[in-house]
Predict the 3D structure of the following.
Amino acid sequence: MPVRATKRGSERTPFPSDAEADVLICGASFAGLAVARELRASGARVTVLDRYEIGERQTSACAAPAQWLEALGLQDAIRQRFDSLVFHTRSARARWAFGFDYATFDYPELCRLLWEQCGEAEFETAKVEGRTGDVVHTDRGDIHSPLIVDAMGWRRVLGTGVQPPEAPLSRGLEVHPFASGPDLEVWVDRAFVRAGYGWSFPAGEELRIGIGSYEPRDHVKDPTVRLAGHVGAEPVRYQGNWIPHRMRPATEDGVFFAGDSAGHCIPLTAEGIRTALYFGIACGRELAAVLDGRQDREAALARHHTFCAAHEWKFERMWDLQRLIPRLHTDVLDRLVGFIARRGISHWSFRHYWNIAPPSFALPAPQRARTPAARLAA
Ligand SMILES: Cc1cc2nc3c(=O)[nH]c(=O)nc-3n(C[C@H](O)[C@H](O)[C@H](O)COP(=O)(O)OP(=O)(O)OC[C@H]3O[C@@H](n4cnc5c(N)ncnc54)[C@H](O)[C@@H]3O)c2cc1C
């Protein structure tokens, strides 16, 4: 197992007993950093916590629409671009054109670039253990904040807990051999996984080959090894995680949730990066409005909740497809895959899918408003 970069031993000093922040963001991955980025012009004391250093623990294949990454100024992290997806069933193979580009990216670099856009926010490594009212408890002590965000992924640490295998979670595991390829590839084939899919995503000098199972009780290690063998790659450098496939309330008992903690991961495809960015930005904008006095915390909670809930029907339709596709007879699946390969159909389908969280939502990082004194001096 890799040793993760985090503060250890004597470096892990306790927080001061009166530690406080205007906004406390727990989790420094896609959702948490997207929230912090929206607050960079607020002038508020923003603290971001994670149990590891920023960018330290990659848990995904890191494929996202290139336009999302470009809109956020993260294009330097891109490793490879794709305008189509090669789709395999047991007996069919088809190429689906996106009508836009997906890109695989380098996780540590993307997190570093996002963090650079977070202005004066402070970062601390600490394991968040729970909360009492406005106080968050960590292994380094307590921090008080009136505005608390849980962006810590599927566990929903600061809300009603979620436990596999009973909870609506998929499981994903992948290997990262040093190898290369030209195409994003996906397999829907029961020879690999009963309900779910396999993938091989090239990212420059590595392939990210994995299996996602919608059934949390089904093990994914052997299928991942088999798929790696099928692709002709070594099953090395493992990583995996649970993946939520139903939306959860985006607020609970005064806490804001964004990303996987709120189930903001699209069912069927398990695409959760652009949605973590999208709902993280939405959450950050509500918090920014509290900090500059345009609304109070209760209004922000209500607006964030309503905004996220308004997307739920789209997630539910994807959830219907997640249940339907594994049940399709192989012949029907083969015909469907061929039908979607028609350019007009694939562009139409991906356009609808894209609109679940379009990149037009991402704007350049907010600029700090000039103070009256600075304006006079200019
Ligand atoms: C194998 C696999 C492959 C995937 N591939 C893709 C893909 O290619 N494209 C895509 O769009 N989605 C993919 N996903 C889904 C995607 O990874 C998630 O939806 C996405 O990471 C959610 O982002 P997040 O910021 O909400 O949470 P996370 O990325 O899970 O980040 C949570 C953060 O919180 C921190 N944290 C957790 N608990 C604590 C604690 N107690 N105290 C302090 N910090 C804590 C973690 O260290 C982490 O930094 C994949 C998932 C898996 C499992």
